[in-house]
From TrEMBL:
<dbReference type="Pfam" id="PF00151">
    <property type="entry name" value="Lipase"/>
</dbReference>
<dbReference type="InterPro" id="IPR020821">
    <property type="entry name" value="ENPP1-3/EXOG-like_nuc-like"/>
</dbReference>
<dbReference type="InterPro" id="IPR000734">
    <property type="entry name" value="TAG_lipase"/>
</dbReference>
<dbReference type="InterPro" id="IPR044925">
    <property type="entry name" value="His-Me_finger_sf"/>
</dbReference>
<keyword id="KW-0472">Membrane</keyword>
<dbReference type="GO" id="GO:0003676">
    <property type="term" value="F:nucleic acid binding"/>
</dbReference>
<dbReference type="InterPro" id="IPR033906">
    <property type="entry name" value="Lipase_N"/>
</dbReference>
<dbReference type="GO" id="GO:0016298">
    <property type="term" value="F:lipase activity"/>
</dbReference>
<protein>
    <recommendedName>
        <fullName>Lipase domain-containing protein</fullName>
    </recommendedName>
</protein>
<dbReference type="InterPro" id="IPR013818">
    <property type="entry name" value="Lipase"/>
</dbReference>
<dbReference type="GO" id="GO:0016042">
    <property type="term" value="P:lipid catabolic process"/>
</dbReference>
<dbReference type="InterPro" id="IPR002334">
    <property type="entry name" value="Allerg_PlipaseA1"/>
</dbReference>
<keyword id="KW-0812">Transmembrane</keyword>
<dbReference type="InterPro" id="IPR001604">
    <property type="entry name" value="Endo_G_ENPP1-like_dom"/>
</dbReference>
<dbReference type="GO" id="GO:0005615">
    <property type="term" value="C:extracellular space"/>
</dbReference>
<comment type="similarity">
    <text>Belongs to the AB hydrolase superfamily. Lipase family.</text>
</comment>
<feature type="transmembrane region" description="Helical">
    <location>
        <begin position="7"/>
        <end position="25"/>
    </location>
</feature>
Length: 637
């Protein structure tokens, strides 16, 4: 019996081994065939992602696919992913997606390095325009087709970006890389300035990715309807784009640093050469929706995300993981993560004393700055940060954007200005290094050290990035309110505009004097929302104090800490709610007795921008989201 068992055992092992080997060789065979297909017919390249999908099981090997020199540039140039997969043409130093219908590329993707720009090996004087015979003749543009069109043969991948070899420079003269551009004031004006700017970025940062392409944008007719209208010329009906775009990705030199991105859109017409390039800046997502290219990399590594939900269990796990003796002060380290409309799910870290991290972060002092300070024992990716950050991102999205009525440069500028107005710098302060310690009273003693960290950060932004203190609001929760207050105190004589204190921590702080806790002198305006009497503070410590549901036991709250956290749900909702939370003046005369003044005046709690108010207010809410009930009905109580 044992012998049979052993034989079966051996057979089984042999079967498994031969199956694995067979699968492995078969996989190599598929890979080899894939290489042949790609080499023979560049148009087959668009199925690459599908083939990759089926081969994901052997993921590591697929990355090494490199049968022919010609395609070895791909992983380098397309590092951030393909904007699209249609009709790809792969040249030695850039990649094109060709639009057969318009006879103009959809997009051209280049990777600029200093070696390809500051080089004399390739020169445009040696090159000639030529048709790309790889394109079927019906869709191919020939050198004669541009004759008498009145347009310049404009390079999408500029020849000056590809000078490391003559053949690279020659490639940019393929007519697939050429698009009709207005000469005077565009191709030889602003567009040229933009190309020079890109090369300058490359000089400074070493590695720049550029995606360039045409746009055919709609325009309003006399009848108030919108039309896409563009000229075509020649027997091949080559399309003349209404605009051109460039999306620029600058790689950070820092280890692990995230790339910085900018997008420009220029109308294809004679422009005043003195126009500031910045006035052509545009939201990357607008370019994406107007072209058929994905310009934003799908999967950038994130410095910080707020996507995952934290659960009660994970809270408990963390609690016990940090059940440690208290740390010494030199471990105090705050980190700062910036979210903006262009990267709503993927923050960029700003480091004090690292100027490049500011430049590359996309921080823009023209946008209002909002600083989020979480509470004790909550993580920087917890629900307070996530919910408020998302509310601000929704607020930013609600602003008008788009290029819909733009064939006029003036209207582009005004579009851009409204875009600017809608965006925020949302900065998340991560002080978990300290805040995760369970020794509450020791953490309380460190409030001023943490506040100094935060104040120094703001001064640094002011010094390096022109931050204006009056554009700053701080939004704190629980102990974060007192940190915000301490930062405000330590910034004096300067003042930030507003502190929104969402249920400031009560234990220990109740008995401290105004210099040791949040107080109304810490900002121009301090608004407090009180939602819990156990964990929160019940004194009026700001200019305006709001007591939703009399400031304790919030509706439908049964878990410990629920009322305490409800404050930030109310605040987040107040940012985007149409109804809003409205309070009426009140006075607390004892633990259970309130006087509600029946004044005509109702004042709004929370919201953007902050509206300075004065006094104590009662607010009624719903027991389920949306919590806002709008203006109150006097008869309700
Ligand atoms: C690579 O492809 C090019 C063009 O398709 C061809 O001329 C060349 O011989 C190929 N090289 C190898 C090593 O297969
Ligand atoms: C570049 O193009 C010119 C003109 O067509 C040609 O004479 C030259 O040999 C080409 N150089 C290379 C390296 O392909
Ligand atoms: C939350 O942040 C901590 C560091 O602060 C990190 O270790 C953890 O992975 C993050 N969790 C999620 C879900 O992103
Ligand atoms: C996170 O929570 C929200 C509501 O609380 C829910 O809609 C969402 O699906 C959750 N996301 C994950 C990844 O669990
Ligand atoms: C706010 O109200 C208090 C008393 O109700 C008053 O002393 C103070 O001057 C008021 N401040 C402002 C700015 O109205």
């Amino acid at each position: 019996m044992a012998g049979i068992g052993r034989t079966l055992h051996c057979m089984l092992i042999t079967a498994v081994i031969s199956f694995t080997l067979g699968a492995y060789y078969q996989h190599y065979d598929i890979l080899r065939q894939l290489c042949y297909v790609i080499n023979d017919d560049p148009y087959a390249f668009h199925i690459r992602d599908k083939l990759y999908g089926t081969l994901r099981f052997f993921k590591n090997n697929v990355g090494r696919l490199k049968a022919n020199e010609t395609y070895s540039c791909l992983p380098r140039i397309m590092k951030y992913g393909f904007p699209g997969m249609e009709d790809l043409r792969v040249y030695d130093d850039f990649v094109i997606s060709y639009d057969r219908r318009n006879r103009v590329a959809r997009w051209v993707y280049e990777h600029l390095q200093t070696s390809s720009i500051f080089n004399t090996a390739g020169s445009r004087r040696m090159a000639e325009y030529k048709a790309d015979l790889g394109i079927p003749s019906d869709f191919r543009v020939d050198t004669t087709d541009y004759k008498d069109s009145g347009y310049d043969k404009g390079h999408l991948a500029a020849s000056g970006n590809h000078k490391s070899k003559q053949s690279h420079c020659n490639d940019t003269f393929y007519l697939t890389n050429i698009a009709p551009q207005v000469g005077e004031g565009f191709n030889r004006g602003c567009w040229q300035k933009l190309e020079a700017y890109v090369r300058d970025l490359c000089k400074r940062y070493g590695s720049v990715f550029v995606c360039t392409g045409p746009l055919y944008l709609p325009r309003k007719s006399d009848t108030d309807k919108w039309y896409v209208e563009y000229e075509v010329f020649g027997p091949k009906t080559i399309a003349v784009p209404t605009h051109y775009f460039k999306v620029i990705t600058v790689e950070s030199k820092l280890p692990g640093g995230l790339p910085y991105m900018e997008a420009y859109v220029m109308p294809n017409k004679e422009l005043d050469e003195k126009t500031d390039l910045r006035s052509f800046l545009c939201d990357i997502r607008v370019v994406e929706s107007a072209s058929d290219a994905y310009a934003l990399p799908a999967s950038l590594a994130c410095d910080h995300t707020l996507k995952a939900n934290t659960t009660y269990i994970s809270f408990l796990k963390k609690f016990f993981r940090h059940f440690l003796p208290f740390l010494s002060n030199d471990r105090v380290r705050m980190r700062f993560f910036l979210y903006k409309r262009d990267f709503p799910d993927c923050a960029r870290e700003i480091r004090i004393d690292d100027d490049a991290s500011i430049q590359l972060s996309g921080f823009n002092a023209e946008h209002p700055t909002r600083i989020l300070v979480h509470g004790w024992l909550t993580s920087s990716n917890g629900s307070f940060n996530r919910i408020i950050k998302n509310a601000y991102m929704n607020l930013a999205k609600m602003q008008p954007n788009g290029f819909t009525d733009s064939n006029e440069i003036l209207s582009i500028e005004s579009e851009i200005n409204t875009n600017l107005a809608g965006d925020f710098n949302i900065i998340i302060v991560d002080w978990t290094a300290i805040g995760m310690n369970i020794n509450y009273f020791s953490v309380v003693n460190m409030i001023d050290i943490l506040g100094r960290n935060l104040a120094e950060f703001l001064l640094y932004l002011q010094f390096k990035a022109n931050l204006h203190m009056l554009d700053v609001y701080m939004i704190g929760h629980s102990m974060g309110c007192h940190i915000a207050g301490s930062a405000g105190r330590q910034l004096r004589p300067q003042r930030i505009h507003t502190i929104f204190a969402l249920d400031p921590a009560g234990p220990k702080f109740r008995n401290l004097n105004a210099n040791q806790r949040l107080s109304e002198s810490d900002a121009v305006y301090v608004e407090v929302i009180h939602t819990s009497d156990i964990l929160g503070i019940q004194q009026d410590i700001g200019h305006a104090s709001f007591y939703p549901n009399f400031g304790k036991g919030q509706k439908n709250c049964y878990k410990f800490g629920c009322s305490h956290g409800r404050a930030y749900h109310y605040f987040a909702e107040s940012l985007t709610s149409e109804l809003g939370f409205w309070g009426i003046k009140c006075e607390k005369i004892s633990e259970h007795a309130w006087i509600l003044y029946n004044e005509e005046e109702e004042v709004r709690m929370g919201g953007e921008p902050s509206m300075p108010k004065n006094g104590t207010f009662y607010v009624k809410t719903n027991d389920m989201p949306p919590y806002a009930v709008g203006r109150m009905k006097r008869t309700a109580y």
